[in-house]
Design goal:
By secondary structure, the protein is α+β, with helices and mostly antiparallel strands. It contains 17 helices and 36 strands. The protein has a four-stranded antiparallel sheet. This is Vancomycin resistance protein YoaR, contains peptidoglycan-binding and VanW domains.
Length: 641
């Protein structure tokens, strides 16, 4: 018998009866489980039989026992047990720490919370509010930085009615989180909760609106160039670039006020604006200034006329420059020629020679043609066309004046072909004197000799122009009878009525006239005309030569009488037919106090019609008639007291 025996405590090959519950059909020899185990001798149980005493002795033998190495399964079970023990301990520790942290921080501000950069996390709420007040109260009165478009400015928070709700600010930080992950992360992260602002809505809205109106909103400034006079010089100027600036406007005042309320304690508040961008760029303005404008105003520009030299000084040139911003960012320089022309006309006026139309002069009451004279006038457009290039030339070569030859409207040949051979209409009036007579004589001189071609229209005001003292006019009462305010050229309506009646009997077409407001008995009723209104303003008279030949006007004044004759080729015999007066209204009476009162007789008002009848010269038959109605207003009699 061997000294060492090993008895396994497990059966590597369980009894099939135990495993399956069935008895095998045949009995096989027993299998030795250790037959293939190294280091263990297999016992031959068939050859040796031990007695019972020996077996007991063998079993009770206390010799050394060999323990087999642990199997993978046993090792796994032992490792799993250790892991579960460590994990359970860790969880228990974490639960203990979580519970302690939760109990210790009940009611405190959550960790990691900041208010406008002030760390109040983990503090008791009273302590947190105290810190906020200490840190933020000085900032409550500091100006709020406001950015709107290209404007940076400040807003006074006190005047805007802004303040802080301290408890409300901490309240929005929330309570301690129950999520353990969140609580752990709060040790390593910050959470900005901002502030709860108090504000008077009306005060804040008004403050923001006033800020927008006074500072934030501004009009578009387009890039351009302006000029400054240089003191102590003769017309020198300095060009200054005006840099472009966008236009902008705060359109949503309520929204801007809310932005201020939400962010006034931060780094600043940006308010959105509606922007209108300029066209010109800074570079575009600078290019125009350096390459065009500065050379043009570097010195005076000479202008060379016929025998006369004019000059355009830099201040005149600068006044004529216009600037237009372009879509490509450039600044276009333009020239207003009228400014240059206004400056040059007085200097070059003597170089122009006005043309003279052929006229009819009357010698011994017979018409004679006075020949026309050609004239010379400045062609301003052609003269000023090269101005920019000449002005930019540093050598200042001068600008040469270009003239046009002025042909008269009525040539000598025209006048001779007009068929002006006889008087076709004539009329005279009387009853004026003094200053009125001087004015009537002055206007008669202006009209005398005028020629009107076939189809042309004659305007009395266009012929005479403004009535000035240099033309021989003096101040006189507006009305021919000496009444009304005194004006220069007063009383000339005497001539106007005379001309109208000459046109009337010449059979020419009336192109517009205005009768007197009140009737003057020195004129034919219904056939008067005036050149002045009650306030002295001008009233025109015009007629058209609707014949096939030309006509000429002859006007002469003698004493208190004026006569107008119209020469041409007679076409009609003209007569006037006046209707009865109707709708007569009495003049009334007006009493005027004061020593400067002038009594005047009253005039009745009435309506009347006048008919112009045309007769054929050869047959004497009536050709046509023209009827017009006239209404004269009553004029009250003035009594002085």
């Amino acid at each position: 018998m061997r000294d060492e025996h090993y008895w396994p405590d497990w059966d590597p090959d369980p009894d099939p009866v135990i495993q399956t519950g069935e008895v095998p059909a045949s009995t096989a020899p027993p299998v030795d489980p250790w037959a293939d185990s190294p280091g263990i001798d297999r016992l031959d149980t068939t050859a040796v039989e031990l007695p019972d005493d020996d077996l007991a002795e063998e079993l009770l033998d206390s010799g050394p026992v060999v323990i087999p190495p642990p199997s993978p399964a046993s090792r796994f079970r032992r490792g799993l047990g250790k892991v579960l023990m460590v994990t359970g301990g860790t969880i228990a520790l974490l639960v203990l720490l979580y519970t302690a942290d939760l109990l210790l921080s009940v009611g405190d501000v959550p960790r990691g919370v900041t208010v406008v950069g002030v760390d109040v996390g983990g503090m008791e709420r009273i302590e947190a509010e105290s810190r906020l007040r200490t840190q933020l109260e000085p900032r409550l009165v500091e100006p709020v930085q406001v950015l709107a478009g290209d404007v940076e400015t400040e807003l006074d928070p006190v005047e805007a009615g802004l303040g802080l709700d301290w408890p409300g600010t901490l309240e929005q930080a929330g309570n301690q989180p129950l999520n353990p992950v969140t609580r752990v992360l709060s040790f390593f992260a910050e959470r900005e909760v901002g502030v709860v602002t108090t504000a008077d809505p009306d005060t804040l809205h008004e403050a923001v609106a006033e800020l927008a109106d006074s500072q934030l909103d501004h009009e578009l400034t387009e890039g351009t160039i302006r000029f400054e006079k240089v003191p102590g010089t003769d017309g020198r100027v300095r060009a200054v670039a005006v840099e472009p600036r966008q236009g902008q406007q705060v359109r949503d005042i309520a929204g801007a006020a809310q932005l201020v309320r939400d962010g006034w304690l931060g780094a600043g508040v940006e308010i959105p604006v509606t922007v209108t961008p300029p066209k010109a760029t800074v570079a575009g303005v600078r290019t125009a200034l350096d390459s065009v404008v500065n050379p043009m105003i570097a010195g005076p520009v000479p202008v060379l006329g016929e025998g006369v030299k004019g000059v355009l000084k830099p201040d005149v040139v600068s006044a004529a420059l216009r600037f237009a911003a372009q879509d490509d960012g450039s600044l276009q320089v333009q020239l207003d020629q009228s400014e240059l022309r206004d400056a040059l006309e007085p200097q070059l006026a003597s170089t122009e020679v006005p043309g003279k139309n052929a006229e009819i002069v009357f010698a011994e009451n017979r018409p004679t043609v006075r020949p026309a004279e050609p004239g010379r006038s400045i062609n301003w457009e052609r003269t000023l066309a090269p101005f920019v290039d000449v002005a930019r030339n540093p050598e200042r070569p001068g600008l040469r004046v270009v003239y046009n030859a002025e042909q008269p409207e009525v040539t000598t040949e025209d006048a001779e072909k007009f068929g002006i051979k006889e008087v076709i209409g004539e009329f005279s009036t009387t009853g004026f004197s003094g200053d009125v007579a001087r004015n009537v004589a002055a206007i008669a001189r202006e009209v005398d000799g005028a020629i009107i071609g076939p189809g042309a229209t004659f305007s009395l005001e266009a012929r005479t122009g403004p009535r000035t003292a240099s033309q021989g006019y003096v101040t006189a009462p507006v009305f021919e009878d000496g009444s009304g305010p005194r004006v220069i050229g007063g009383g000339v309506s005497q001539f106007t009525t005379t001309l109208y009646n000459a046109v009337y009997f010449a059979g020419l077409k009336d192109a517009g006239h205005t009768g007197h407001v009140h009737y003057f008995d020195r004129y034919p009723v219904g056939r008067d005309a005036r050149s002045l209104a009650e306030d002295g303003s001008v009233v025109d008279l015009a007629f058209t030569n609707d014949g096939k030949t030309g006509i000429a006007l002859q006007a002469e004044v003698s004493g208190g009488s004026v006569t107008v004759r119209i020469w041409g080729t007679k076409r009609f015999r003209v007569e006037s037919s006046t209707g009865p007066r109707s709708d007569v209204t009495p003049p009334g009476v007006r009493i005027v106090p004061g020593s400067d009162c002038a009594p005047e007789p009253g005039k009745a008002g009435f309506s009347i019609s006048d008919t112009r009848v045309f007769y054929d010269l050869d047959t004497g038959n009536e050709v046509r008639r023209e009827t017009r109605s006239v209404r004269y207003a009553a004029k009250p009699a003035i009594f002085c007291r």
